[in-house]
Structure formats: structure tokens, C-alpha cells
Amino acid sequence: AVYRDPYLNLKQTESLFNLLPEISQHVRRLWFNGFYTAETDRYILSIISNCPNLELLSVPWTVLRRGTAEDWIDLLNVNTGAGKPLYSLEIQGICLPSEQAKQLEEDCSPNPLEDSRVDFSALRRLKIFGNTLHKPVSDDDLTTIAKTATNLECLDLTNISTVSVAGLLNLVKASRFTLEVLEHSPRSSDGFYHPYPGHLESGEHICDLLTSLPRMRDISISIPTICP
């Protein structure tokens, strides 16, 4: 049998961008799918760091779990003095094979979102989709992101049941004056069963919040209750 390196494309892309920065500076969109190991996360983050004018990016959630604060400062590219800030970010989740899951669970990397220098204020579109059992995106993550994600125009949480309505609303409130498109649907196999909605403020009405958003034009949301 002939061995083929499963990560060859990533390695070659990283080498090309390191060798010829005049090429990588013209890259506007990157999409990574099917790579979930510590090694591939390093390649992905290295490739991203070589693209200062990147606008649209789709990455596996493992990059969030293994990346450093410096990696995410480069990724979002706010006030770095090089290129332009990231416009659109997609984070994909998936259930991993047992060995990859074990490696991720044993990883002790600190959460990069907890570093105040990681700034989502220039991001206009955020999509988080796909379910995983292994260090999934949580309400705590959304709450931390919401501290700086104040200019989102499009927010999409799809096919994910590890975040609640409360986590979603933290992001909605943070971008209440800019948000135009909102989509939220739990994992499809959950049907119409809604998990615990989270810790909502006492007396808070979701409908009142959603109808008060001045720029909202397109909304599709799954919520546990609705006002009469």
C-alpha cells in the first residue's frame, strides 16, 4: 500500500504562505473541514496568521479549545496594525472518534476567550453550528464573546444543543443596535423538546427584547415560551 499523508494539503498550504506572503495577503476566505487534531489545529492557526486580509473564516471548534490568546488575536485581527479585521467567523462542531476525543479532553490549554485582548468588536457575522460531546461551545463561551461582540449583523446558532436561549440572548443584547439577521435552532434530533433555557433575568420577556431590536429584518428562532 502507498501511504498518503492525510494532512498534506494543510502542510503544503502553510509552506506556500510562509514562502510567498505576496500570495497569502490576497486570501479573503478560508474554510477548514475534517481536521480536528492538535497537529492540524497548529497548521490551521499558522495558515490563518499568514493571511492579514482574511474576511471570511470557517474553522473547527477545536481551534477554540487549543488555540492561544495570541492565536485568536491574530485570527480576529483587531487593532493589530496589519491588514483588516475578520468580517465573518464560522465555528463547526462534530462528534470525534474515541482517540481524538480522548486527546481533546486531556488537553489543558487555557481558554483564549478569557484574555481581554481577544476582541470580537469588528466581527459582523458569527455562526456556530454542529453538536459535539467533547468540550463543546457553551453558554459561558457565548457570555465571554458577548463582552466585545457588540457589532454583529448576523448571528446563527444552528444544530447545536449545548447552548441555551440565555446564552444566545447575551449575544443578542450585546449587538442589539446592529443585529439584522438572527437564526437559532437546537439540534434537529431534539425535535421540539427544549432544554433548560438558562438563567434568564427575573421577569425578562424574550419577545419584548426581540421586538425592540431596531435593525432586525430576518428572524428564525426556537424559544421555550412566547408571550400571549
UniProtKB/TrEMBL annotation:
Protein name: F-box domain-containing protein
